[in-house]
Amino acid sequence: MRLISTRALKPGMVLATTVYNMKGQALIHDNVPITERMIYRLQELSIQYVYIEDSLSSGIHVKGTISNKVRQHAVLHIEKAFNQLSASKSQPNLLVIEDSAKQLKQVIEVVLSEVKANQDLLTILTDVFAYDSYIFHHSFNVTLYTLSVGLELKLSPKQLEQLGVGAILHDIGKMLVSEDVLLKPGKLTEEEFNEIKKHSEHGFEILRKLHSVPLVIAHCAYQHHERLNGSGYPRGIKGEDIHPFAKIIAVADVFDAMTSNRVYRKAMLPHQALEVLYAGSGTLFDAHVIEAFRSSVAIYPTGMIVDLNDGRKGIVTDQNKGVTDRPVIRIIEENGEELKCPYPLDLSKQLDKMITGFDPDYEPQSLKIK
Q1: Are 73 and 39 in contact (CB under 8 A)?
Q2: How many CB atoms are closer than 10 A to CB 268?
Q3: CA angle 7-269-113, nearest 5°?
Q4: How far apart are CA 67 and CA 146, in angstroms?
């Protein structure tokens, strides 16, 4: 399997993973030669990267962290909880939301079980979905990242449950923001941005009234946009005044936002987003959280074509846990020439070699489709 940009797809290539909508329905099947119409459809759905099968990446397998069934189940529960609130904006039905919160705790148990059972580094690029609402999809992804960090930080089972529910519900206040503002494709005015920022307070006010939800979960919604140096919102609090759970969710929230395709900008790849987080380490984001995040997530996903500092080009074949920026590479090109016999290179054992770039549009001469 090889990761490729949808703009580099050519008719005749074979998708390695089926593309689903969030209801679990297959939109484009795997193992079928792709057509011009399929390529147009993928781009129309704003899907930026897919995996393909070819001889260059033969034997490279990429496993998703979470099963499609669990993802779909979780996102549907998130959608249900959020929509129940949206349907009663003027007078939220707290009993209904209480019931949804209890169901979300069960969702966390299932998701956490799968994350624990998966020994590989977390990657969601393998999960190719077309989704109707960014909020529900984003809430699930943030939960996945957050739980992975929580496990890395060795939080207790009770803390992981609270952290997970806090992550799922961190953006619930957005359901009280005008859809015209929330879904606006262009740049927001200052007034519109101020309305968006109110979602943190909206979420806090909703969640703090729920008897089945600990107050710490309400603070996850309230504080996930606060920053260590006081530049965040809604209160501009600093450092130790920010709850540790909110610091974790803040990193996951920003990372997923940067690696998701949006109307106003294209998605970054994981290593690009991590560089942005590192730029704010210790000033905007907790350095310990970023290190735990880095240890949990595949920075260079398996199947990605990368460039090395010595001019060689290769495909990521395996991950090295603990040193996620130094995966195992299959060298496929040297001095600008494709190799007839590619060979492996473990960057964890070759410390003078490093990845300097990536090439999702790479098209080997030997595999060009005529």
Answers
A1: no
A2: 18
A3: 120
A4: 18
| Cα first-last separation, the chain | 21
Tokens of 121: 């580094």
pLDDT (tens digit per residue) in 156-179: 999 999 999 999 999 999 888 888
Instruction: For tokens 């709850």, name the residue.
Output: 243
pLDDT tens, position by position, 231-281: 999 999 999 999 999 999 999 999 998 888 665 567 788 888 999 999 999
Half-sphere exposure of 363 (CA within 13 A, CB side): 11
**The residue to which tokens 């449950």 are assigned:** 161
List helix spans (H) across the chain. 36-44, 68-86, 94-117, 134-152, 157-168, 179-182, 190-197, 199-207, 215-223, 244-258, 270-279, 287-296
* 3-class DSSP string for 71-97: HHHHHHHHHHHHHHHHCCCCCCCHHHH
- What one-character-per-residue DSSP string does 107-141 give? HHHHHHHHHHH--SPB--TT--EE-S-HHHHHHHH
Per the omega criterion (within 30 degrees of 0), is the bond before 301 cis?
no
Q: What is the spatial distance between Cα 246 and Cα 216, in angstroms, rounded to a whole number?
A: 9
d(CA 129, CA 304): 19
DSSP string, 229-249: TS-SSSS---GGGS-HHHHHH
DSSP 176: G
Distance CA 107, CA 74 (A): 6
Question: Which of these, 187, 127, 186, 119, lies nearest to 148 by C-alpha position?
Answer: 119
Stated pTM of the model: 0.88
Confidence of residue 55 (pLDDT cuts 50, 70, 90): confident
| Domain boundary assignment for the chain | 2-62+301-367, 68-296
Output the CATH code of domain 68-296.
1.10.3210.10
What is the C-alpha to C-alpha distance for residues 167 and 227, in angstroms, rounded to an integer? 17
